[in-house]
Amino acid sequence: MTTVLRAHWRGEENVLFAVMRQDDEYTRYIEDLEREHRELYGPPARSSMRRPCQDGW
Q1: How far apart are CA 34 and CA 45, in angstroms?
Q2: Which residues does the chain have with pLDDT short of 70?
Q3: pTM above 0.85, yes or no
Q4: 8: which residues sit within 8 A by CB, 6+ positions away?
Q5: Helix crossing, 27-41 with 2-11: angle to 10°?
Q6: How many CB atoms lie within 10 A of CB 23?
Q7: CA 47-44-36 angle, 5° bins
Q8: Counting runs of H as helices and runs of E as strands, what totals does the chain give?
Q9: Cα–Cα distance, 28 to 17 (Å, whole number)
Q10: Helix (H, G, I), strand (E, B) or coil at 3
Q11: What are the C-alpha distances in Å from 29 to residues 2, 18, 32, 35, 38?
Q12: What gap in Å lies between CA 42 and CA 38, rounded to an integer?
């Protein structure tokens, strides 16, 4: 499940968020969502299901 969630999260940040960030109206929302990703999946781990992967996430 962790692998699937990471892939989903990266897809959002690398594609969807990047496109939305081009419109100033969405910038604040994207920053909030990216911060939420870091809180859920970034170090230090806040989820008991998180396992470190090769790139440190």
Answers
A1: 15
A2: 42-57
A3: no
A4: none
A5: 160
A6: 9
A7: 65
A8: 3, 0
A9: 11
A10: helix
A11: 24, 12, 5, 10, 14
A12: 4
Structure token digits, residue 36: 């939420």
First-to-last CA distance in the chain? 14
Asked if omega into 52 is within 30° of 0 (cis), the reply is: no
Cβ contact 7:55 at 8 Å? no
Residue found by looking up tokens 């806040």 in the block = 46
Q: What is the DSSP string of 10-29?
A: HHIIIIIHHHHTTSGGGHHH
Distance CA 33, CA 29 (A): 6
10: tokens are 């990266």
